[in-house]
Amino acid sequence: MAAGYANSRPPVHPRVMERVFRQLGRTEPFHYALDIGCGSGVSTRALDGLARARVGLDPAEAMLRWAAKVAPFASFAAGTAEAIPLRDGSVDLITAAGSLNYAKLDLFFPEAARVLMARGVLVVYDFSAGRSFRNSTTLDAWFDAFFTRYPPPANEARELSPAILSGLNSGFHVRGQEHFEIAIAMKPEFYLDYVLTETNVAAALRAGTPYSEVRSWCAETLATVWMGEVREVIFRGYFACMAATARNS
């Protein structure tokens, strides 16, 4: 799964961060960015050119072994959102891509406030799996069958959105937000590799289903959906730019 995340995830993260920079009106890079829950470094790589120094933090060392290859100009450390191993006031940007859904928020937000510089920004974002073509429901129907055949694990993640984040007693306020749809042109071969990184596939493998069986079923059934063509796949999500309430934004 770590290898799949490193090599077979579509470039949604940099598209999101481009939108974030427009929302913030930034013309210069941040000084020091921290990427919470960086995984294999794909979300950290999206900060190239947007921050002069970048560090990714993740508790899974198996993911971090890939991170240095995926984002070679960033630094990485093992750690959690609830106990950030950085000094006070050391970063001016924190990003969290789908990771706060699993964090203990009552512990995370004080840590975020501690490590952020004055006027620092916390960017929380997430997006759903790419399961839709722009003008066709054929991929949606396939994805439903995919999840029926290989059910996802029980969802332990909390739901988050700009509205939910705004309603939390976190010590932060939302200063900018957006719900988005991002279209990524993909070849059918790349899409196959991508969907095999989804959590339902990992659950199937843990339950004893051979990887070859999952890949074979996906390849055969996707062939009639993609018809060998390059297609645009839609990723839907949100971002929220947050600032500490006690500070000037």
Question: What are the salient characteristics of this protein?
Answer:
8 strands; 249 residues; 2 domains; eight-stranded mixed sheet; alpha/beta; globular; Rossmann fold; 10 helices; 28% strand
In short:
This protein has helices spanning about 1-5, 10-25, 40-45, 60-70, 105-115, 140-150, 160-165, 190-195, 200-205, 210-225, and strands at about 30-35, 50-60, 75-80, 90-95, 115-125, 130-135, 170-185, 230-245. The protein is an alpha/beta fold.
Write the layout of secondary structure elements.
Blueprint: H1 2-7, H2 12-24, E1 30-36, H3 42-45, E2 51-58, H4 61-70, E3 75-78, E4 91-97, H5 105-115, E5 116-127, E6 132-133, H6 138-149, H7 162-167, E7 172-186, H8 188-195, H9 199-206, H10 211-226, E8 231-244
Parallel strand pairs: 1-2, 1-4, 2-3, 4-5
Antiparallel strand pairs: 5-8, 6-8, 7-8
Helix pairs in contact: 6-10
CATH architecture of the largest domain: 3-Layer(aba) Sandwich
**What is the typical, i.e. mean, pLDDT?**
94
Query: Might you state the CATH topology name of the largest domain?
Result: Rossmann fold
What is the succession of H and E elements? HHEHEHEEHEEHHEHHHE
Quote the beta fraction. Answer: 25-35%
The count of DSSP E runs of length 2 or more, i.e. the number of strands, is 8
Structural class: alpha/beta
The outline comes out as: globular
* Share in helix: 25-40%
What's the level 1 CATH class of the largest domain? Alpha Beta
Total number of distinct structural domains: 2
Contiguous runs where pLDDT drops below 50 for at least 5 residues: none
- What is the straight-line distance between the termini? 39 Å
Radius of gyration: 19 Å
Q: Can you summarize the main beta sheet? A: 8 strands, mixed
